[in-house]
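pasting for ref
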Amino acid sequence: MSQEKTEHTLVESLSPAAKPQGILRPTGVIVMLALALVVAALAYQLILVRDMSGALSQQEKLSSKQQQELQTLQQALAGKQQALETRLLQVEAKQSATLDQQAALASMYEALTRNEVQRGLAETEQLLIFASQQLQLTGQPAAALSILTAVDQRLGQLNRPDYIKLRRALASDMVTLKALPQVDTIRITAQLDSLAANVDKLPLLMDDMPAQTTPPPAADKDASWVARVSSEVWHELRSLVEIQRIDNPEAILLSPGQTWFLRENLKLRLLNTRLALLARDEAAFHADLQAAEKAIGRYFDPKSEAARQARATLQQLDKTKLVLRLPDLAASLAEVRAARQMVEGSGK
């Protein structure tokens, strides 16, 4: 019995004091409130963690989808980039081929142009040499001037700046040629040919020598028969002899053969005059003209209109000057040769 009491007393002493019912201690309230706040905070944190976990899951799913789309886009871009690189390589190859072709064409064009320029300058030099030779041989500035004008027009059509000096030299030579007096060789040649053709028609001095018959004097009706007969006899006697003044006796002593040689000699003299004109031999030209004029005045009838016109034409031609101080076109030839050397030097 005592043992049971002892155990009961020990249990009561060990057990907490019994709380009075209906009355809460302040400490307990605070603890409860703290526990409630902690529980609420934990619950809120759990809710936030759950929401954040869902948002993160959705974000991860979206990121994964976007990553897949990005990978697909990157693959497409990589394919396009590779295609662009391939096309760029093709374009570069075509551009390189085009540049090579362009360089080859430029080289060919330059070679063709250089050859064309060389050929044009060579032809120009030959034309200038021919013009200079014709000028010295014929003495006609008109022919050389026409050649220089044609050459200048051709160079003007090419319109190259390296032809400026050459065209200036050509212009200077053309001005010099235009200032020279003109010798009308064609007109003089035509006049000489006309004189030679009319030589056979010129009357000789001996053709006018026969005496002209004069009619007998009119008989006087009042005169006797003896007076009339004596007058007629006297007239016939006077007509047998005629006295004239002749300054050149040999002109009337020519035989028919000599007159033929005289006319042929005059034709040859006029032909020599023409040859001297073409050869620019002024001394022979004037000598032949003077000899022909003297022959016409000596052996042909000075009363004839044809003889007077022939002598007047010869005297007029004798005043013509054939020898002129002609240029040699040296400046133009020097410039065209310098241009040729420049072009040939650039092609080496």
